[in-house]
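Colleagues,

For the teaching module next term, I've prepared a clean inverse folding example: a structure given as tokens, and then the sequence designed for it. I'd like students to try predicting residues themselves before seeing the answer, so please don't circulate the second half yet.
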């Protein structure tokens, strides 16, 4: 079973999830879990990244439904975790509630050869009277390594819900170094069973099948206010009206497995980037911190906001060597993909280049489809041709076009995936908008820029990183916690759709 592609952002953008919570029974009968917050700084950014209504709501038939709420705390200002229990008596674990994967896993007491396990809570089967031995071994791959272990069964407590006989993975080996610094213990997958390693039934499925949900929905609200004592909520079976304004815009799931939808154009300062006008896939992923998308668009965004990356000599070399020829082809009406074949930078089978940083769920398929002769020059050629084509529509001079294209080359993401911006320029930066369901969802600079403490100063980073997934699965966006912080999100399992509404500021 292929693991969720988005975990490859673990290499650079693994965010540490922190641990102390106190569970209390409130007067309205809900279990509320209070979590602590930590400041965001560059050392923590480098360390790790794995990488939500009040008590009652009205259903369509007017019945009062008790929502099951887990309160989240904002850790590092952009990532969020909560607490669950496993076994009888309950053993407590801090976990990532992740809509981009489907398995539940926690470290096992038998994890003795991985140093990371000694810094996290470990599940002890011998201490639980409801433990069931399964013993099937499995491996969950990530971009920077993997975790491996075996399946077990036990009761799982989520808020005030007890899910009986839940399959989960006891991890006995953690194969990526970043886990050493992470304070989360495990991952609570909220994706579909289609992408579950070992075809294990996700916890959410059992919450529904065991009759614990009045409505087959859960919702996430994330609070990016670093001064707020509450970092967010995940609400199972409902949502909280006070956490959003207006109505939700619902869009259907386009491909079951992930919470994958279709997005349209991406607009920067009222100008179309054009690349996704015909539609791009997007995965709504609470386990990813940032906004990942095609390099063609990300480079345009980072250029518009003044992000400083590492200049790509290969990109500029293609412009220098083939720029005038590409200009002539495009002026005559030749498509970018045909152009790049004609000048021998692409094969006739089309581009299948996948960034070396990226492992995706489509990897096994594309390995069979890709031409062995394909090179990154093909991707660069089509990208540059597309940029030139966009500028041609503005009817500017050839000199202006190539000046702009070379500037975009300089904004290509650097090898460590960081793009810095001047914190003093936030007020002058443009809004970036996604068209979803024929409605525009806008992110302001305050919402897509990360402010990071570095010694006595503050460093600002672009929240946009490159992710290149080839057709037919791509082009693909990953809408992570930065997007969910701006828009309250409803995951409608019953109707296979996702809803977005503007998040309320408390």
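(Answer key — instructors only)
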């Amino acid at each position: 079973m292929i693991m969720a592609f988005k975990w490859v952002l673990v290499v650079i953008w693994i965010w540490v999830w922190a641990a102390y919570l106190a569970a209390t029974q409130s007067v309205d009968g809900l279990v509320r879990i209070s979590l602590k917050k930590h400041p965001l700084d560059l050392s923590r950014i480098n360390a790790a990244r794995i990488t939500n209504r009040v008590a009652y709501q009205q259903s369509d038939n007017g019945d009062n439904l008790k929502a099951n709420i887990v309160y989240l705390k904002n850790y590092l200002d952009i990532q969020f975790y909560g607490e669950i229990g496993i076994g009888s008596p309950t053993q407590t674990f801090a976990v990532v509630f992740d809509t981009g994967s489907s398995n539940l896993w926690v470290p096992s007491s038998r994890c003795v050869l991985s140093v990371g396990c000694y810094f996290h809570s470990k599940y002890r089967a011998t201490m639980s009277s409801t433990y069931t031995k399964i013993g099937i071994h499995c491996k969950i791959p990530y971009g920077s390594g993997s975790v491996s272990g075996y399946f077990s069964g036990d009761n799982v407590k989520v808020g005030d819900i007890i899910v009986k006989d839940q399959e989960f993975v006891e991890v006995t080996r953690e194969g990526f170094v970043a886990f050493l610094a992470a304070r989360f213990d495990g991952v609570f997958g909220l994706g579909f069973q289609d992408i579950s390693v070992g075809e294990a039934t996700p916890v959410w499925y059992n919450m529904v099948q065991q009759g614990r949900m009045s409505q087959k929905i859960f919702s996430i609200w994330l609070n990016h206010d670093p001064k707020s004592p509450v970092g967010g909520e995940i609400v199972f079976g409902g949502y909280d009206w006070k956490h959003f304004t207006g109505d939700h815009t619902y869009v259907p799931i386009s491909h079951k497995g992930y919470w994958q939808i279709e997005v349209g154009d991406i607009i920067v300062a009222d100008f179309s980037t054009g690349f996704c006008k015909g539609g791009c896939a997007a995965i709504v992923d609470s386990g990813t911190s940032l906004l990942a998308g095609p390099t063609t668009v990300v480079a345009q965004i980072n250029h518009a906001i003044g992000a400083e990356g590492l200049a790509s000599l290969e990109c500029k070399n293609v412009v220098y060597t083939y720029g005038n020829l590409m200009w002539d082809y495009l002026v005559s009406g030749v498509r970018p993909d045909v152009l790049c074949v004609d000048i021998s930078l692409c094969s006739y089978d089309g581009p299948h280049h996948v960034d070396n940083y990226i492992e995706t769920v489509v990897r096994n398929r594309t390995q069979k489809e890709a031409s062995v002769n394909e090179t990154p020059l093909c991707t660069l050629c089509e990208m540059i041709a597309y940029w030139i084509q966009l500028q041609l529509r503005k009817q500017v001079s050839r000199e202006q076009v190539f000046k702009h294209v070379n500037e975009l080359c300089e904004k290509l993401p650097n090898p460590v995936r960081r793009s810095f911006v001047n914190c003093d320029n936030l007020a002058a930066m443009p809004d970036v908008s996604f068209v979803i369901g024929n409605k525009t969802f806008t992110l302001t600079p305050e919402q897509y820029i990360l402010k990071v403490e570095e010694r006595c100063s503050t460093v600002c980073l672009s929240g946009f990183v490159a992710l290149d997934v080839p057709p037919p699965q791509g082009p693909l966006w990953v809408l992570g916690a930065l997007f969910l912080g701006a828009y309250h999100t409803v995951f409608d399992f019953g109707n296979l759709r996702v809803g977005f509404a503007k998040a309320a500021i408390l």
